[in-house]
Design a protein that fits this description.
The chain has 314 residues and is mainly beta. It has three domains: 37-104, Immunoglobulin-like, CATH 2.60.40; 127-218, Sandwich (Immunoglobulin-like); 224-313, Sandwich (Immunoglobulin-like). It contains two helices and 25 strands. It is elongated.
């Protein structure tokens, strides 16, 4: 007779468990969904004000920072001063739910991103160098001059003033203009026929900057020839001859006679042979500029090279 009562109690317990499970599921669902409702959201200068409702007795966060709590009825009111203005004028408000509510603050103006910085100003052009090619030239011929800048010439071009310190040898135009956008320009160096070889300094100036180069204007003979001279040395006697022929210098007791100087075509390689007299010996060559090795002397344009043999008495 007691069995029906037991069955009834069991059914009641199952029903109660089901109700509790449904209630727990509703609470979980409520926690998973944002239950925040914002009725007021404003930013007045640096003062933030938020009002609304949420799940009762919950911490209210703004952009992840706890700023207040809801009361037993779920209402909340948050004031914070100072409050840093968000760039997009929005804040995320949450009561612990999985997803916050994003609201836009009235009284807030979206901050525009700063404009990109202006490009760096182009470097101002100035005179960098002046060159002449060739630097050695036969009088009456022309050479090519070039001016170069540190940066591209501005609109309208860049003017360089030109001059020559020796107009007997070489002349240049008064100015040369580097075109806009270019970094160099050429000009002509005009040379004159001269009676003796001489140099001229070609000068360029602009904006307080000066540059220069040197051009040497040669006579026709000096341009194509150089010379070698024998300087007697020692107290002995002997003879110095050259190959190719030209020098045939006899030295007697330290004094020279005969062809002790001779011209050769520029670039010729000359060999000198020193032959002592019977009463003398050859002590070697004195090392003079250009005559370090008398067996192969290269003749230089317009230049005399001295060589000194050492003949000594026995």
């Amino acid at each position: 007779m007691e069995e029906p009562e037991t069955t009834q109690k069991t059914a009641t317990r199952i029903a109660l468990a089901t109700v509790l499970a449904l209630a727990a599921g509703m609470v979980a669902a409520s926690a998973a969904l944002a239950d925040v409702r914002v009725s007021r959201a404003e930013l007045n200068g640096s003062r933030l004000r938020l009002e609304g409702t949420a799940i009762a007795n919950r911490t209210i966060t703004v952009d992840g920072v706890a700023l207040g709590a809801s009361d037993g009825a779920g209402s909340f009111r948050i004031e914070r001063d100072p409050f840093a203005k968000p760039a997009d004028c929005t804040v995320d408000v949450n009561d612990g739910s999985a997803t916050p509510v994003t609201v836009t603050l009235s009284g807030c103006t979206v901050t525009s991103p700063p404009p990109p910085p202006p490009p760096p100003a182009a470097a101002a052009a100035s005179l960098s160098s002046l060159t002449v090619s060739p630097r050695d030239i036969l009088g009456g011929q022309t050479a090519a001059g070039t001016v170069r800048l540190t940066a591209a010439a501005p609109s309208g071009g860049f003017v360089v003033s030109l001059s020559s310190d020796n107009t007997t040898a070489a002349n240049v135009p008064a100015t040369v203009t580097v075109p806009a956008g270019a970094t160099s320009a050429g000009f002509t160096v005009t040379t004159n026929v001269v009676s003796n070889s001489q140099s001229s300094i070609i000068i360029g100036s602009a904006g307080g900057v000066t540059a220069h180069d040197v051009v040497t204007v040669w006579t026709e003979f000096a341009y194509t020839h150089g010379s070698i001279s024998i300087v007697p040395g020692g107290n002995g006697s002997g003879r110095v001859i050259s190959q190719p022929a030209g020098i045939d210098c006899t030295i007697t007791n330290g004094n020279g006679s005969g062809a002790c100087t001779s011209f050769f075509t520029t670039g010729t390689v000359v060999r000198l042979d020193a032959r002592p007299a019977q009463n003398s010996g050859f002590a070697g060559w004195r090392g003079l500029p250009g005559c370090g090795d008398p067996s192969k002397i290269t003749v230089a344009r317009g230049t005399n090279i001295n060589c000194q043999p050492g003949f000594v008495l026995k």
